[in-house]
Design brief:
The chain has about 180 residues and is an alpha+beta fold. The protein has a domain of about 120 residues: Gcn5-related N-acetyltransferase (GNAT) (Aminopeptidase, 3-Layer(aba) Sandwich). Helix content is about 30%, strand content about 35%. It is built from four helices and eight strands; from the N terminus they run ββααβββαβαββ. Strand 7 and strand 8 form a beta hairpin. Helix 1 packs across helix 2. The model has no long low-confidence stretch (mean pLDDT about 95). Keywords: Transferase. InterPro entries: Acyl_CoA_acyltransferase, GNAT_dom. GO terms for molecular function: acyltransferase activity, transferring groups other than amino-acyl groups.
């Protein structure tokens, strides 16, 4: 599915949130790899579960053709600096919901890019009769948890000792959901 692009301006930075196109695939592969190496808030370490250009082309093609998926990018001066995906399910019993994930390059934190990717995804979900959005977030990522709560997400569960980080300690994953009646 696609959305109309939106322009944003924050802290002297202008950026666009728009639907991904197959031409973004190479840049997306690079951005995802870089994001994975910049934070432990994501599931992967740098280089794990690597998706190359052709892999991203296929994901974007599938998401564009699917009414239950949405792939957005955030672009600054024709460079992708973040992205988000809503991935739905074609099984009838789960067709009412999508899973949301987001990634923004560290250099661009603090400009509301993640927030605007989330807001555009919520708008898309609400206007396309998607009743539930789910996500998972590391317990230490308080900024993200607070943002999600601000936009109507509630804690639905906790996966205890779910991830081991570079300090050798185990951390919980928080499962959150937002239901639109």
């Amino acid at each position: 599915m696609r959305i109309n692009h939106q322009e944003f301006f924050a802290n002297d930075l202008s950026y666009i949130v728009r639907s991904a196109t197959e031409g973004d695939a190479k840049n997306l592969s690079e951005v995802r790899l870089q994001c994975d190496g910049e934070t432990e808030n994501l599931d992967r370490e740098k280089g794990e579960a690597y998706i190359d250009e052709s892999g991203f082309q296929q994901i974007i093609k599938n998401d564009t053709e699917s009414s239950c998926n949405l792939f957005l990018v955030a672009e600054v001066n024709n460079r992708i600096v973040g992205f988000s995906r809503c991935e739905g399910n074609k099984l009838k019993r789960m067709s009412h919901k999508v899973e949301f994930g987001v990634c923004v390059l560290e250099e661009y934190w603090g400009y509301g890019i993640g927030k605007n990717l989330l807001k555009e995804s919520i708008n898309w979900a609400d206007t396309n009769e998607i009743k539930k959005m789910t996500l998972s977030v590391l317990e230490t990522n308080e900024k993200a948890i607070n943002l999600y709560k601000k936009y109507g997400f509630e804690v639905e569960g906790i996966l205890k000792n779910d991830k081991i980080l570079s300090d050798g300690n185990y951390y919980n994953t928080i499962l959150m959901g937002r239901f639109n009646e």
